[in-house]
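Hi there,

I know you've been waiting on this one. I reran it after we fixed the sequence typo, so this is the corrected version. Both the input and the resulting structure follow.
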Amino acid sequence: MNLSNHYLSIPTVCRHAAVAIRAAAFALLVGVALPVAAQTAPGKTIQTFLLYYGGGPTLVASDAARLAKFDLLDFDRFRYNQIGSNTWAAIKALNPNMNIYLYVDGPNMYNDQDANSAININTLARYNVSRGHPMGSLNGNHPELFQLDSGGNRIYNNVYSNPGANHYFYLMDFGSSAYQSYWVTALKADIADQPWVADGVFTDDCIADQAQSGYNATSAKYPTDATFSAAMNTFVSAISTGLHGYGQKLWCNKGETRTAIGSAAWLSLDASASPPDVFLEEGAFAVMWGPWATQFLQESEWKSQIDTMKALTHTKAAMVSSTALAAGQSGSDNFGNPVTFWQTLWYSMGSFLIGKNDVLNNAYFSFHGGDSDYNKIIWYDEYDNIDLGKALGSYTVTTIAGVNIYSREFEKGYVYVNPTGNVASVALPQAGRQLTHDNLLSPLASLPLVSSISLSGHSAGIVLKTAVAPVDTTAPSTPCPGALRPTTSG
């Protein structure tokens, strides 16, 4: 469950291209030791996203440039008026290609948000008041849309409810066409028809497995995981169709790709007539959940996540990894082994690179640690400075001393991931220079050439190839005046 429930010009382009070509050519000629970042000319090897909710500080003008670096953003709608008169416009002025989504829960309903203004709610907030909804209020006019347990009692979420204070987070009948229609109509009024409308809606709790959700009882109507998941998929398809009809995209927090039923739900929706635009996996590869510094998934669960992400053809995948450690800290993982913050980041990042669909380029990555759980604007040097080019195929698996090592070749390097035990030596197909967090910004020539690398359990290695592709000095089909002409002196 998403933790937000706790809170409420062509000439210019040509000039840039010419400068880049000349700089690269000059560097090759004179052997200048440029930093790694300069020599690899960073592209979008790692597309990123950010979840930023009510617990985070108020946005200020200087945040616009930081937020514009991401490809996808998910906000509470009240952030709209924090940067000038339109936060979304301030960010998009710097990155018009990024998408902004606004948070709202899907299958759940608070009973005490009725008095909140539309810009300050994160569920339907129509428990006893209709807010002009043509179907009336939910509790007053549609009690049949609340899910019940076998004893006829309304089901609520244990984590986000406080019965002693009459504060409930009720589970609604998301599989009902009446509730689906009610939800879409409410979202049109609350978001699509409002000044704060963005690119789409982020919908929480679109899960497949009710046992993972923290409800106080099992649904009498959808008592099994199979019936629960099937009903949830009808909800996602229906609201996807409805929101698309209003010009809004849909991002669903679905998760559970480590399980067979969760992965099947993702793939079924992806192949459906009305898939959502984005799925979220909050527990990808490594997580902060539990009593450990980092919890790593079993290899079979990890591989299920990799393969699910890889298989998507219509819906994007947004993968969140995390650790309880802050940057620079170390601790113990769920296997009793030492683990560090940077190890967890690189393992998660390597896992993402192993599995992302590099043809459709439809995968996005996010990582956080310590107390930075959706309440900080987080950016790592890795996002700017790792450019491997395009992948040259899917991942391969090599077994070394009983350990499966997953690897993938890219135009400019290789990614290796070890999801289990220690491996002393992994031979490289060619000598290369291994990147780490510590040497990421060092001159490339200062990094030693290696023919093999070691991979401890739950770690990843990124190795740059030493061969440099020839510089392409071919003029564009519509040349820019003077852009590629040699300069003369005197």
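Quick highlight: Residues 1-42, 468-473, 476-490 have pLDDT under 50 and may be disordered.

Best,
R. S.
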